[in-house]
Design a protein that fits this description.
Layout (H helix, E strand, L loop, with lengths): L2 H4 L7 E3 L3 H11 L3 E6 L5 E6 H6 L23 H11 L3 E6 L2 E7 H11 L17 E2 L4 H11 L3 E5 L5 E6 H7 L1 E12 L12 E12 L5 H4 L6 E2 L5 H11 L3 E6 L2 E7 H9 L1
Parallel strand pairs: 1-2, 6-7, 11-12
Antiparallel strand pairs: 2-3, 4-5, 7-8, 9-10, 12-13
Helix pairs in contact: 4-10, 5-9, 5-10, 9-10
């Protein structure tokens, strides 16, 4: 099976030159966490920009400066095994599919996982591939703090615990951007004119105003925004069952529980590794 057989051809992308406003509007409209970036005049792929890049670089307005240019690509003629190996080796979720310098499509972990599910029945229990050390947040954590924990942990979503340390929900980047507002801020700077030898200019100054737009999480707690309806499995569940649940419910991870107690988490990358070994 080739990459070109399962890749997504309907590509959503943004172009440079552009600014962070363009990216903000695209992320909110498309509800995605990363987008390919193309040169406007040639359509050439120059990199990817992530939702996380906008939060981590609030003072950068030029889209070209937010782009991750060191990207790994595949061709439509490469095998799914090649694509899966590259994703697992580099710990990435998506690969641009490029031929003759042009972007043909995107292939994701989910695309490969869906194909593998159709071809294999793997009864390996989740306990053999799940993550046992899972960062989590308290349900009364302020949203801006939760966003920082997400970024520091490198996770896309985190389980939420209540006052009894029991599972009460999940919070992710996309949940936060959905409720975040685009706020415009204006800062004033002073630019002194003249020179030390100009007696008429020593006290002159020019005021410059810098306007920027950024995504600001509201002053809410995680509990007010989190996803409360959760998919969970026990550690005895087979990995192919988890893969089907992810595919059917359009999620990237499932929590592993014992009653209301969190035991771990399994992601689509974990399943991809288990299903392709």
């Amino acid at each position: 099976m080739k990459v070109g057989d399962v890749m997504t051809e309907d590509i959503q992308a943004i172009t440079v030159p552009g600014n962070r406003d363009d990216a903000i509007e695209s992320f909110k409209k498309l509800e995605v966490s990363a987008l390919p970036v193309l040169k406007k005049d040639t359509g050439e792929l120059i990199g990817l920009v992530r939702l996380r890049d906008l939060f981590e670089n609030p003072d950068e307005n030029q889209l070209a400066m937010l782009v991750n240019r060191d990207i790994i690509t595949v061709s439509p003629d490469q095998s799914l095994e090649d694509a899966a190996r590259l994703m697992l080796l580099n710990k990435i979720r998506r690969l641009p599919v490029v031929k003759n310098g042009e972007l043909n499509g995107i292939i994701t972990v989910r695309d490969i996982l869906a194909r593998v599910i159709l071809e294999k029945e793997v009864e390996t229990p989740v306990s053999e591939c799940m993550q046992r050390r899972v960062p989590s947040v308290w349900q009364n954590t302020p949203l801006n703090v939760a966003l920082e924990i997400l970024h520091l942990s490198g996770e896309r979503a985190l389980p939420v615990l209540d006052n009894n340390a029991e599972l009460s929900g999940m919070i992710g980047d996309e949940d936060i951007i959905e409720v975040s507002e685009v706020k415009e801020e204006e800062k004033m700077g002073l630019l002194r004119g003249g020179s030390e030898t100009d007696k008429w200019a020593w006290d002159s100054e020019d005021r410059i105003y810098i306007t920027k737009r950024s995504l600001k999480p509201p002053e809410k707690t995680v509990k007010e925004v989190m996803t409360k309806e959760l998919l969970t499995v026990t550690k005895r569940a087979p990995v192919n069952k988890c893969a089907r649940l992810m595919e059917e419910n359009n999620v990237n991870q499932i929590l592993v529980t014992a009653g209301k107690r969190l035991e771990g988490m399994v992601s689509d990358e974990d399943l991809l590794k288990a299903l392709t070994e």
